[in-house]
Known about the structure:
- This protein has 383 residues and is an alpha/beta fold.
- The protein folds into three domains: 2-70 and 92-170 and 258-324, FAD/NAD(P)-binding domain; 172-253, D-Amino Acid Oxidase, Chain A, domain 2 (2-Layer Sandwich), CATH 3.30.9.10; 336-379, no CATH class.
- Helices cover 32% and strands 29% of the residues.
- The protein contains ten helices and 18 strands.
- The chain has helices at residues 12-23, 50-55, 96-109, 158-162, 229-237, 284-303, 309-339, 342-352, 365-371, 373-379, and strands at residues 2-8, 28-31, 46-48, 64-68, 70-74, 80-83, 91-94, 113-115, 118-126, 129-137, 140-151, 174-183, 191-195, 205-210, 215-222, 243-253, 262-263, 266-268.
- The radius of gyration is 22 Å and the shape is globular.
Amino acid sequence: MKYDVIVVGGxxxxxxxxxxxxxxxxxxxxxxxxxxxxxxxxxxEATSELTFKTLGIQPSKRYICSKIYGVEVHSPDGTHFKxxxxxxxxGYILDxxxxxxxxxxxxxxxxxxxxxxxxVKDLIIKNGKVKGVVAKHLDETMxxxxxMVIAADGVGSNISRMAGINTLYGVKDVGSCxxxxxVGIDADPNYMQLYFGREVAPGGYAWIFPNEDGVTNVGIGxxxxxxxxxxxxxxxxxxxxxxxxxxxxxxVPLSGPVEKTYTDGLxxxxxxxxxxxxxxxxGIHLATSCAKIAGEVAAExxxxxxxxxxxxxxxxxxxxxKIGSIIKNSLKYRKVLDKLNDKELNALARFLKGRDLxxxxxxxxxxxxxxxxxxxxxxxxxx
Length: 383
């Protein structure tokens, strides 16, 4: 077996990389370790319309559960306010199980071969360059050669480490997340609800996302806690009269991208590369943007018969130009948020309530100085 490109991982990063590589007329094999693409669910399922603009497709009713017009933020003392995205950008809650499958189908239609229930055990490396994979499907182990590999195998990517790229995160750099799908939760059908506070979700937040037909996604993400996310989620839902019928768990890298996302014959994309917003933990749009670049650069490398690190460096340059500032700013905001205690969070919520973020001036901040001088000291680097 021989391909131009092998993509390891069949979720968004893998399917989008495969799709755009195949669209550029190279032979692609996508390998997925699970027997069904999109399962198990490991995501809160929220994204923006930018995802579909990047893909060049219209959102389908098959996987759009609800349309989102903004977010309502709740502070520890119950103060809450609504925020809308700039430019009236639409948001969506997806059915990720259907959405991920649909991306894989589009990739297959474009020419990608797909192997499911297949685990990559090792890389084929010749003269320091990645040249394929050793894979196991059921009881059969096989070598599959390729001119290059795209690692889209999730947080803590094994494939990247096999190629010498460090994708290990510290304990405090990964958000531990758990989510229930529930019925019986009374939630605004067009707004996402976010709850902050040390007692609610240390190092993160809890969320209620409207799904469809009376279903909501209720979850929590935490960092650096002696208790589990499961503990905090059950504590959180005790405030509501709802019934869970599905549970999903996962880890999210929140410290920004890995130091290097390419080497000879290999590039890294999605959660494996740390293409996740450090503030929100959202990664669908960022992964889609980077995976499109990955597929296009991989195809270009094949056509130029050059899969060296020097050539593949342009992948990292392009994704940094596209989303690098987004991740950098979000990481800065997250580090500030990490420093705030509940009293400061309450003061910030009271200040922001009823205000248009674009209208905040140095004069209006004087009131915040009087109420919480320590909060202003924390915010001075981001205001």
